[in-house]
Amino acid sequence: MDIELTEIDGIAIGKYLREELNNQTTQIVYISSLRDFAMDLFAVRPLHFLIKPLKKEDIFSVLDLAFKLKTEEEACFLFQAQGVTKSVPVHKIRYFESNARKIKIVHEDGEDEFYGKLDDIETKLNNKYFLRFHKSFLVHYRWIRSFSPKEVILNDGKTITITRSQQKKVLEALIHIDRDGLIHRL
Fold first, then answer.
1. How far apart are alpha carbons 109 and 183 in whole angstroms?
2. Could you say which DSSP state residue 26 is in?
3. Phi-psi bin for 55: left (phi > 0), alpha (psi -120 to 50), beta?
4. Radius of gyration of the chain (CA)
5. 3-state secondary structure of 38
6. DSSP result, 6-24
7. Chain centroid to CA 70: how far?
8. Which region holds residue 183: left if phi is over 0, alpha if psi is between -120 and 50, else beta?
9. Chain Cα centroid distance, residue 87
10. Neighbours of 109 (CB within 10 A)
11. Would the pTM count as exceeding 0.70?
């Protein structure tokens, strides 16, 4: 989407998509001849920002990334809750929270509880999109709004402390994920 449109700018459309329609999964790639918009894009969390004139290899690179993310969206996490097998698309999962042997899965459509171990879930997901900040939390990076060396803040305002033993590993992972400016550092 071009940032500079005639009636409304592309950033306003992106904010409407994220905030008003609560659509956190549609991938947005902005294009512009100006670099000045980079800071305004934090609220929209675009997949990428391309500078005009566009290069064919940049377009294909972004399309490859979007395809990889789409493949993740199709994956589902299965679990047993009260004798019923339930399924939640992986891209809709915000985080898992462990309390003793009870796991709370928080997702776009609400939350569920089931019995299990966070270590087993982490192994089962085997997914670079989930980060372990704390022995009790496994979080999908898309739901991280900002981070500092000691904590992360999720899009819903929830703050999760990063344990000392995980700080270096988590910060390296967040910085790697954030190379395109998708997450704000506190």
1. 23
2. S
3. beta
4. 18
5. helix
6. SSS-HHHHHHIIIIIS---
7. 13
8. beta
9. 19
10. 9
11. no
Match 């997914």 to its residue by tokens. 127
The Cα 96–Cα 129 span in angstroms is 13
Dihedral of alpha carbons 9, 73, 132, 161, sign = positive
Residue-wise pLDDT tens digits, 103-135: 999 998 899 999 999 999 988 887 667 888 778
CA distance 122 to 158: 21
| Model confidence pLDDT, tens digit, residues 86-103 | 989 888 899 999 998 999
Structure-block tokens of residue 51: 């500078």
The 10 Å Cβ neighbour count of residue 15 is 15
Q: How far apart are CA 150 and CA 133, in angstroms?
A: 9
Token pair of 5, please? 């449109």
Among all chains, which residue has been given the structure tokens 């003793």? 100
Helix (H) or strand (E) holding 173: helix 167-177
pLDDT tens column, 44-92: 888 888 888 999 999 998 888 887 777 666 778 899 988 889 989 888 8
Q: What are the structure tokens assigned to 12, written together?
A: 């306003």
DSSP code at position 163: P
Please list, in sequence order, all residues whose beta carbon lies within 8 angstroms of the beta carbon of residue 38, skipping any fewer than 6 positions away.
49, 181
pLDDT at 117: 93
